[in-house]
Amino acid sequence: MSGFVGWMDFRRDLGAQEDVLHAMADTMQHRGPDAKGLWLSRHAALGHRRLAVGDTAGGAAGGDAQPLTAEIGGETVAVVHAGEIYNAADLGGGSSEEVLLRSYLRWGDRLAERLDGMGAFAVWDGRSRRLLLGRDRMGLKPLYYFAYPGGILFASEPKGIMANPLFEARLDPAALPIVLQPRLTLPGETPLAGLREVPPGHVVIWSEDGPSPRRYWRLSSEPHRHSFEETTRHVRELLEDAVGRQVPASGPCAAMLSGGVDSTSVAALAVRALAARDGRSLDTFCVRFESDSAHFSPTELRPEVDAPYAADAAEFMGSRHHTVTVGLRDLLDAVPATRRARDLPGWGQFDASMYLLFREMREIGPVAMSGEAADEIFGGYPYFFKPELVNRDGFPWMGDGPRLADYLSPEMREMADPVEDERARLSQLLSEVPRLPGEDPENARMREVLHLGMSGPLAVVLDRKERMSMASGLEVRIPFCDHRLIEYVWNVPWSMKSRGGLKGLLKAAMADVLPPGTLNRRKSAYPHVHNPEYDHALIEEATWIVSDERSPIGRMFDRPRLAEFIRGIAADRLRPDLPGGTSAPHMLIQLVEMRRWIEDYQVSLG
Asked: Does the keyword Nuclease apply (predicted)?
């Protein structure tokens, strides 16, 4: 694991820009604290920071210093890579950068199709004066870029681009809907003008003629031929294989453990894989809040506290278990670090608790496992079983409650109408659903609903996991994002996925390694803090944002209407209108984080 930065420019000599490239690369130190490398030429420059994580079952990771170069016909081919290649042994073995370089020299622009893993990469080919940027199929590792006349800047995180004086942080007014509701973000979008992200499953070729993007992976819909029993066996085989390839081949390993089906499935298989390989043990971690005993209130999405279930699951599978207890002061102190980890508007306490959890996990070692993404792939949220939400004319997970974007000022709504914007995003995503000719209406609709959930909402989950873990130099691997597992489960009919209720297929596949408490537990999403002091702080800051003339974003909103909305939250009048028992004060997190982001990064509002 690591982070990288780069610069290509056909109009200036980058060999004279070493100081700037150093500054860009140094922003990635948290992603790669163990080594640093630079390579500069006239028209291309690369910088890399390395995190040593040992090797996986697929091959060595981290090995040689990056950037890695090869001289061919008097010209240089240079590569950088951030991530893990799980099939490195099948591609000749060696470090990830060696595999990447060898694959590029053999398959050229088609190398991404050959890689199995999570990662992002850049290849500069001096022979053709072209730059190739690529990102893994599910977008587990980030890669941002900023194009300008004659050149392009790119980096694993926005801060790498922001360190170059050519980039100015300026809010795109049309992006306000995704600032206020990040789950609506389409692949590649950011709220900063000119800043883009390589979409998952894409490569982009840059030359003097400009960019040439290509999507190299997408789901395809095909008839499912297996019985339920055959399907459960194959799901189990695919998940076992993914976990087996992703646990580290040496050194310690940690795992998130909530006591739910997803994390317990991954942890249980990791315990078995480590024990079979060399007798190593797994360390599991769960987060709890100090305020739970006094203030926890069950909701549809979070009916129970995780910690007791996690402890029981750890005892059942035989892991060394750790409960990380977080207080309100811990959360508030951590939030500034989570903002720096993102460089974009964040999620407040949701980010902070995960950041603190990962900081503790990093004490065990640099590699951890997670059960993320199973809900989106197998259909694990309550809304999947509510016809009124499944069949609504809109995003099923949004519900019909209020949205912050509803309170934008008339001037802002002319530039970013939230209703039309949401409709356009929904229409675009529905147009991209891989259809199965002749599929019955129920399964066809559920295919659409799953596709919508695997777009913006899953991207938000994966993005938070990646940023909060790498802020501590921790590499988190997500076996449920194995593309072969996803391709297979995508074509399992909804009647099979849902047999037995939420994630019935996954429960059937994993029943023999899960404790009864986990199998029978209701779905419980990643926890959030229940604390009236935190809620009050959000309400207080949101009130200041809308009422004080010094607020940098207050003028973007219809102040009287937004103020009344905030008073409604303070009076607890919104609870029945929010999906899944969402905390009304936590709706204000995006508003508060937007203000802090604009101030911290001196974002121009145009």
From this structure: no
